[in-house]
Amino acid sequence: MNPVDDIRRSYSMWYFINDFLTSLFNLIGITVAVLFIHTVIRLEHPNYSIANLIACQTCLAIGLLSSTIFFNNCYVLYHEFFDRPVNNTFCIIRGTIFSVLYINMYAILCLKAFNRLRCVVYSIRSATKSCRSLLVLTSIQWTVVLVLVLPLVISNGIDYGQHSHLCTVTIRKPWQFLYLMIIYYISIVFITSAYIYILYYVLHLPLLEPYRRQRQMKLLRRILILLFMLTLPGIFYLILLIYWIIFKSIPSSSLKICTLIDSMAYAGAVATIFISNSRLCRLYCMERQEKFDPVRQRQLDLIFLQQPRRKVTIIQTSFTLEKLPINIQRK
Questions:
Q1: What is the per-residue pLDDT for 294?
Q2: What is the pLDDT of residues 62-106, one digit of tens each?
Q3: 110 near 187, Cβ under 8 Å?
Q4: Domain range spanning residue 307?
Q5: What 3-state DSSP class applies to 167?
Q6: How far is CA 79 from CA 17, 35, 93, 269, in A?
Q7: Peptide bond into 3 cis (omega under 30)
Q8: Is residue 290 included in any domain, yes or no?
Q9: Which residues on adjacent β-strands are paired with residue 167?
Q10: 160-169, 186-195, 271-280, 299-308: which range is least confident on average?
């Protein structure tokens, strides 16, 4: 048996497993996003809160980005399974759509962090609580997204990955890749700074507000998980960039691993958003049922029966308007 054939076969099997796991994580993300949006529409129609509208936008952005990766991986998985060549038609259009959805997702996550900052810290100000303000912020967000994507398209930064079969900004275009990483890290720094400031504000709340402090701390724990999910791809991309600077090349399977980590992060992020909504958790997540000890229940019943009952007498009194003083009648 030729050892070269074994190496090719092993690489092919690794690509198959990687594409399968990537498709699975993206399918989970799409399912959770659709379930979240459907449930919010069903429960809150027609009166939607600003926080839930932004959460639905976030789930929609993650779901659309996961859908592009999912369909691309299903296409690649089918061709790899039947050993057929993968066609890279419409690569510029596919890459542009992918870049728009990628930047839009992080822009909406920044908007979500800004809204959480407004709700917790600046809750008294009502200038940013209306649907009109949300519409203005969404318009600004889409304008910024299109402006940020434009340099990638003009400079021909979108490339076709031979091993990942993705049309995106690869590390072979270093300036465009660095530009996309700067956008990513600015978004992560903004989101992290907003939530750190919220954490600082909540920890310094007066002791007269224990319920609000406890509620915000519980929510911030889940937000920290969301931040970890969003930061995980950036750590791997940073390692990959340092590797490319030192060795002037990257491993052939690195882009596929990046896609797998991205899919895991997106699925974890949308699942964290779903869990952070207490109303949806009460609706879908099974609460633990308390198990009562029958002996203990009988003892409680006996204690209740041994307590003396208080006699309550009701005295009915009737007053007539003629017998009241004159000053009370005038009132």
A1: 55
A2: 999 999 888 888 877 777 666 666 666 677 788 888 889 999 999
A3: yes
A4: 296-330
A5: strand
A6: 14, 31, 21, 30
A7: no
A8: no
A9: 160
A10: 299-308
Residue 231 and residue 325 in one domain:
no
Q: Please give the biggest Cα pair distance in the chain.
A: 117
- Which letter does DSSP use for residue 289 in this model? P
Pick left, alpha or beta for residue 37 (phi over 0 → left; psi -120 to 50 → alpha; otherwise beta): alpha
Of 41, 105, 110, nearest to 69 by C-alpha is 105
Q: Virtual CA dihedral for 243, 244, 245, 248, nearest 10 degrees?
A: 120
Report helix angle 131-154 to 91-120, nearest 10. Answer: 150
Task: State whether residue 160 is helix, strand or coil.
Answer: strand
For 227, the token pair is 């931040």
Tokens of 322: 């003629």
Total domains in the fold of the chain: 2
Angstrom distance (rounded) from CA 61 to CA 107: 10
Looking at residue 2, what is its pLDDT?
38
Q: Is 102 exposed, middle or buried (0-12, 13-18, 19+ CB in 10 A)?
A: buried
Indicate whether 171 belongs to any domain: yes
* Helix, strand, coil shares, percent, the chain, to 5: 75, 0, 25
CA pair distance 260, 94, nearest whole angstrom: 19
Residues 106 and 219 in one domain: yes
What type of residue sits at position 273? I
The answer on 268 and 178 residing in a single domain is yes
Do the bridges between strand 159-160 and strand 167-168 make them parallel or antiparallel, or are there none, so unpaired? antiparallel
Which of 67, 318, 105 shows the shortest CA–CA distance to 191?
A: 105
Nearest to 266 by CA among 238, 230, 222: 230
